[in-house]
Design goal:
This protein is of the alpha/beta class. The chain has one domain: Rossmann fold. The chain contains ten helices and seven strands. Strands 3-2-1-4-5-7-6 form a seven-stranded mixed β-sheet, with helices on both faces. Helix 6 links the parallel strand 1 and strand 2. Helix 3 packs across helix 5, helix 8 packs parallel to helix 9 and helix 9 crosses helix 10. It is globular and about 55 Å long. The termini are far apart. Bound molecules: S-adenosylmethionine. S-adenosylmethionine (SAM) binds next to strand 1, helix 6 and strand 2.
Length: about 280
């Protein structure tokens, strides 16, 4: 019976999806045609906290008009054949953030096919500094309550191939769930200059990831929390999303005497460990 209902509802679901895609494409095209949004400097990170929606739209324009061609080409590569998620504006965010803070150590929890870690490697090369990159992920199709992944890819080899495509030094890939002891040991190893939490988005797991990374972050180090924009004033355009409940709730619980909020680009929120 359940299957029959699902089959009957399928055409409506598809039509809704197509309609949404059309609206998203129209909104993207309109923003590309529009004059540069005035009064928002992408280098003014505080502006993103005052008006995250306007800053996001400006970051989208920043990606298409101001970031280096190599960064745009990287996004084009990962946008093909479902190699990555993310949004154009996030490439602009990583470009400005990594260039400014030049982390020597970078940790990603939840790697998928390597879009973000290879972008960090690429920006480090463009800006001529060395960055050791580590990724913790099951490298399987393991998802969470909000995501499903294809079972047909060898994710570990795929990440390495994508690094080779950009001629980047191999990252250290740790095959584990972030909550496993082997992963916890790796997180504790380093005072990390920059961490990106984007693994399992369920509240309990994000909370555990945050706690482990908050302790392991270097003084002045950054933690970027993905999908955490639901609890802010950010209102995404039709081609973007505000995130998921787990990370968004966690972001509101962060102790602001230990971490100050530095930047928000859409559903990505960046926190900096206070130097005591
Ligand atoms: C949204 S994707 C990550 C995208 C990636 N951060 C990027 O920017 O390209 C989430 C990834 O986290 C992985 N994952 C799921 N649960 C995890 C966990 N507990 N620890 C680490 N990774 C996990 C999934 O298998 C998937 O590859």
């Amino acid at each position: 019976m359940k299957r029959l209902v699902q089959a009957l509802l399928e055409p409506a679901r598809r039509a809704k999806g197509l309609l949404h895609q059309c609206r998203a494409e129209r909104a993207r095209a309109a923003l590309l045609r529009r004059d540069m949004i005035e009064g928002v400097d992408p280098e003014d990170f505080e502006a993103s906290l005052r008006d995250p929606t306007r800053y996001y739209l400006r970051s989208f324009q920043d990606f298409h008009r101001e970031v280096p061609g190599a960064v745009r080409a990287h996004r084009t590569y990962f946008s093909k054949e479902r190699r990555g998620f993310g949004e154009d504006a996030f490439h602009a965010m990583w470009w400005r953030l990594i260039r400014r803070y030049q982390p020597k150590t970078f940790l990603e929890i939840g790697v998928y096919r390597g879009q973000t870690i290879s972008l960090v490697g690429l920006i480090a090369r463009l800006e001529s500094f060395a960055c050791d990159i580590t990724g913790i992920s099951p490298f399987t199709s393991a998802g969470d309550s909000v995501s499903d992944y294809s079972e047909e890819i060898d994710y570990h080899d795929d990440v390495l191939r994508n690094f080779q495509h950009f001629d980047l030094r191999e990252p250290r890939l740790v095959r584990a769930f972030s909550t496993e002891p082997a992963a916890r040991d790796v997180i504790r190893e380093c005072p990390w200059d920059c961490v990106y939490i984007d693994g399992n988005h369920d509240y309990e797991v994000v909370q555990a990831d945050w706690r482990a990374c908050a302790d392991a972050a270097a003084p002045g180090g950054l933690i970027v929390l993905d999908d955490a924009g639901l609890t802010t004033s950010y209102r995404p355009p039709p081609f973007a999303t505000a995130g998921h409940p787990g990370p968004s709730r966690l972001a509101e619980e962060i102790d602001r005497s230990r971490f100050r909020e530095l930047l928000q680009v859409g559903h990505n929120r960046v926190f900096q460990k206070v130097v005591l």
